[in-house]
């Protein structure tokens, strides 16, 4: 995936009923032009229609859009018969060997009946700080305290709060990356978003020289997921430390570490990669980390997350919760405290990594049997960034492949949603993400098997049709 050689589409004002010219880079295929999914995508995303220079209506994230399309095919009526490989959530059952049992009942204290502090209750803030000090700050003079932690109602709320307190700046973000960044980057006008494309040939890695280049041209805030969604790659030391050294005193580094527990680079020993390890002074280094119970503690429904950083940042992030989201559910905060004991967390991460690595290897093996070309093995998260370009033309792009999977009751996320495009300037057919899908191996193994069986039927069906068409053309 690369932008080299691409001519970016120019959106000129036009009459209301005049169709907008498509990509200047290449003409879309007939399967793309005739696709229901393509028409739905353009209808739902104003930037891909005429008058894209106007402020577009807010679109949904990729997962929500794909789920809505699945509803139209009966997913809502009978979700158990489907394989949802699109939702970015891990299995939540208590079946993983070695993991602690999740609470089934929560006692609500009198404090839990009251409004909570918008920055979170102090005992949970202390527990988060203690966890990071134990796992990432051993032997370091500078230690996190409760004042370096803000509790937020989920990752998206945390990102929105961070965006709300940023000053005028160029904010650099990478492509491909987490779909919800798109709306966050387009909601606020206090910074300008600058895309930084990563190369497929380089396995979508972020290198220090890329960071240095962006800072040299004036970028003062950098946002990225690490481990990376959707590519399943992680930046680890010494490369991560070098990046932080480059940013120190020059740029604010926002690290989305929600998948930090899904680390397969250290033989599933339970260790977690975090930028917290390379921070020199917790109050001087402009490193903001966001994580929570959602992914690595497998509790997405709790909506308990945290932001860690310098006290000045945290104070501002805590305050803006009063007008943005009102703060996090207090009873769930109280219930979360005991989960964050450092020894317990290390044991939990070891079990988590072993289980999800096994699922990753199963999915990779099945996809290779089906005939997919896999350029690299992801070393983290529970996602695969699946290249469709070697498939028959009728399903060689993300939207058509997604549409075909719906017929088999399988959900994936078209890659176009990870081409962060907050100004809606780039056309669908110019996107380097157009011929990819993100596939999640977060669900239970039985769901994965069902989903891969459905994908195999899709690929075989379209291969047969493609061969028949080639035979007919010869005669």
UniProtKB/TrEMBL annotation:
SUPFAM superfamilies in UniProt: PLP-dependent transferases
Listed Gene3D superfamilies: Type I PLP-dependent aspartate aminotransferase-like (Major domain)
Region (Disordered): 1-33
Keyword tags: Aminotransferase, Pyridoxal phosphate, Transferase
Compositional bias annotation for Polar residues: 1-12
Domain Aminotransferase class I/classII large stretches: 84-424
GO molecular function (one): pyridoxal phosphate binding
Signal peptide stretch: none
Cofactor list: pyridoxal 5'-phosphate
Ranges of Basic residues composition bias in the record: 14-23
GO BP of this protein: amino acid metabolic process
InterPro entries given in the database record: Aminotransferase_I/II_large, AspAT/PAT-like, PyrdxlP-dep_Trfase, PyrdxlP-dep_Trfase_major
Family statement: Belongs to the class-I pyridoxal-phosphate-dependent aminotransferase family.
Official protein name in the record: PLP-dependent transferase
Native source organism of the sequence: Xylona heveae (strain CBS 132557 / TC161)
